[in-house]
Amino acid sequence: MFHVTEDDGELYAVRRFDEIADLDAFDHHLLWCEECQRQMVWTEQYLRMLRTALLEMKSTVGQATSPTPAPGPQLPTALLPRK
């Protein structure tokens, strides 16, 4: 087996093992490949961040908030007219 694919890494991170074509080869490769281990850590952190963001969004649904207008373009101070 070559390196873990991003799709299989995500499936593994969310515990959907039955959707990984060759789980035994995947597990074996992950045991010794430091590059794939780093990728799995990154994938798990990314998914954790997504879950947190979705929970925060879900908790604010229905709360009345007024959107904050985006600031207009800013000129560098050196380009502003001097007083």
Brief descriptors of the model:
mainly alpha, 3 helices, 83 residues
What does this 3D model show about the protein?
By secondary structure, the chain is an all-alpha fold. It has a domain at 6-59. The protein is 54% helix and 0% strand. It contains three helices and no strands. It has helices at 6-13, 23-32, 34-60. Helix 1 (6-13) packs across helix 3. The longest helix is centred in the middle third of the chain and has 27 residues, at 34-60. The radius of gyration is 23 Å and the shape is elongated. The relative contact order is 0.12. The model has no long low-confidence stretch (mean pLDDT 79).
Major beta-sheet overview: none
* Average pLDDT rating: 79
| Percent range of helical residues | 40-55%
Low-confidence stretches: none
Number of helices: 3
Q: What is the number of beta strands?
A: 0
- Shape call: elongated
Summary, kept brief:
By secondary structure, the chain is mostly helical. Helix content is 54%, strand content 0%.
Structural topology:
Elements: H1 6-13, H2 23-32, H3 34-60
